[in-house]
Amino acid sequence: MKASRTVTPTICLGQLDRTAVLVLTLLTFVTLISAYGAALAAEPVSASYLGVSGDTVRLRVTIGSPAPQNLILEQYLPPGAQMIGSSPSARQVKNSGVVKWLFKNISPGNIDVSMRVSPPAAAKNVGGTIRYRMPGGGKMQELRISY
Amino acid sequence: MAEMQQQGVMAMVKIDGDKVKLLREQKGLTQLYVATVVQVTTDTISRWENKRYPAIKKENGLRLAEALEVDLEEILKIDEEPEEPADSVLSSSVPGGGSRIPPLKSHLPLLASVFAGATLVIGVVGYFFLYQEKPFNISAKRFIPLQCTAGQPFPVAIEVAIESSGPLAVIVKEQLPKGMTIKTSEPPLPSNGPKNSSLKWLKKAEGKALFTYIATLSQSLTADQPLNGSVATGNDGGKSFPITGPSTIQLTTFHWADSDGDNIISDQEILTVYDQYGDLEKLGIDVDLIEEIWLGSGYRWNEKKKTYEILP
């Protein structure tokens, strides 16, 4: 007569830890991907300064999809500075140092803007914002232009 | 041939009234809808269907086919070919003038049965194919300023959202209250203007379509006497849906683009102007004035001159 032997399945502590780490890693990965996707979907516009060379400051506005229909760009000059030219032409230059552009019927892609400033040293201290209404919902968005 | 030329001037086509009626009924379209698309009266559609006027202008034929969502050829009358002698069809002779093969007449009952069976199968399959519900969703929303100045033009936009598998013909109607006068519209209205104080557009569209008109007011539009409109499509038996959104507007001394009535046009307000109402310059709205107010430090209404004065 053969002797029977019972085998009880066991998981050692080390194995459990590895499984937990794997699950946690996967969950973190999925969460990050979702958050990145949601961030991309929520912000159809981004803008950053490309750099300063001499008296010229250049910036790029990137329009995603779906694109807002229209967009306002505002640049703020430091006290005492003035704008001596821009491409495309600004819609308004105020004595207070606020320069405005209105971009109508925009579509996904890039809008490059360059601005010449006097004195040239002021070009490094220019700041700016973008304003637009969210496509679809119409909620107003304001975005600071990053360096 | 179902197509003919009359005196070398106007192309005419012969339509099959029975087919027209059958197609219209199969698609659940009313004579009124078809008449609207073709731009004729319902009596004319009735005459065409009852074969009392089988030759019609090719231009009308094309519009009729479009309304029925078929090609023109499908509603044309097919002229009957002269029948060939029965012998030439039903039998043939063996080369050399020998014996004749058995006439096809003997197979006729079988052929007729096969033909009838095939027709039945095609009919059943076709019925289910044609009558499958084509899913679509349609809605319309009106955008109107909160206020405007008496006699000064302001825009009204109706945004129609269509979710469908292809373009749909939509009819948008707007009933005009007393004291409202229409200046222009996009799509354009007929040259004789609105009929019976109502605007009506017909357009084939998918996705989003914008219907905009410019109006002036001599009195406020209140809840007792609001704008009232509807949108309908040829599908779903011509069922219409009300246009949602605001339907009243107050007469004030504020510019229509100054929605919060603070005598300035803010960034949000200028963006709303362009986002909601589309290409207003084309419709005769003075967008330069709106932009000048936006860029300035304010404005005021001059009652004597009937103009808005921009504050420096």
Automatic annotation (TrEMBL), chain A:
<feature type="transmembrane region" description="Helical">
    <location>
        <begin position="21"/>
        <end position="42"/>
    </location>
</feature>
<keyword id="KW-0812">Transmembrane</keyword>
<keyword id="KW-1133">Transmembrane helix</keyword>
<protein>
    <submittedName>
        <fullName>Uncharacterized protein</fullName>
    </submittedName>
</protein>
<keyword id="KW-0472">Membrane</keyword>
UniProtKB/TrEMBL annotation, chain B:
<feature type="transmembrane region" description="Helical">
    <location>
        <begin position="108"/>
        <end position="130"/>
    </location>
</feature>
<protein>
    <submittedName>
        <fullName>Helix-turn-helix domain-containing protein</fullName>
    </submittedName>
</protein>
<dbReference type="InterPro" id="IPR001387">
    <property type="entry name" value="Cro/C1-type_HTH"/>
</dbReference>
<keyword id="KW-0812">Transmembrane</keyword>
<keyword id="KW-1133">Transmembrane helix</keyword>
<feature type="domain" description="HTH cro/C1-type">
    <location>
        <begin position="20"/>
        <end position="75"/>
    </location>
</feature>
<dbReference type="GO" id="GO:0003677">
    <property type="term" value="F:DNA binding"/>
</dbReference>
<dbReference type="Pfam" id="PF01381">
    <property type="entry name" value="HTH_3"/>
</dbReference>
<dbReference type="InterPro" id="IPR010982">
    <property type="entry name" value="Lambda_DNA-bd_dom_sf"/>
</dbReference>
<keyword id="KW-0472">Membrane</keyword>
<dbReference type="InterPro" id="IPR018247">
    <property type="entry name" value="EF_Hand_1_Ca_BS"/>
</dbReference>
